[in-house]
């Protein structure tokens, strides 16, 4: 099982989930994607969209300032 980190803290919706979806498509089943993103719309949309696409959102954690980490299992 591999873990990949994707930093989209400078991105805005809808590119936040587009970039997340592209990275998830590169992973093998069971791999983990840790997504660093800003609070607000990205923090609301990325986990929700990941769940809607059938991925498992393992955790949502505050990292620092306005940055959060969403851990998604493919």
UniProtKB/TrEMBL annotation:
This is TusA-related sulfurtransferase. The keyword Calcium does not apply. Keywords: Transferase. InterPro entries: TusA-like, TusA-like_sf. It comes from the Bacteria. GO terms for molecular function: transferase activity. Belongs to the sulfur carrier protein TusA family. It holds the Pfam family TusA. The keyword Transferase applies. Residues 4-74 form the UPF0033 domain.
């Amino acid at each position: 099982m591999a873990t990949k980190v994707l930093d989209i803290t400078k991105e805005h919706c809808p590119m936040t989930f587009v970039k997340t979806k592209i990275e998830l498509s590169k992973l093998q089943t069971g791999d983990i994607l840790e997504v660093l993103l800003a609070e607000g719309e990205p923090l609301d949309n990325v986990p929700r969209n990941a769940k809607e696409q059938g991925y498992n959102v393992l955790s949502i954690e505050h990292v620092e300032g306005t940055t959060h980490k969403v851990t998604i299992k493919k």
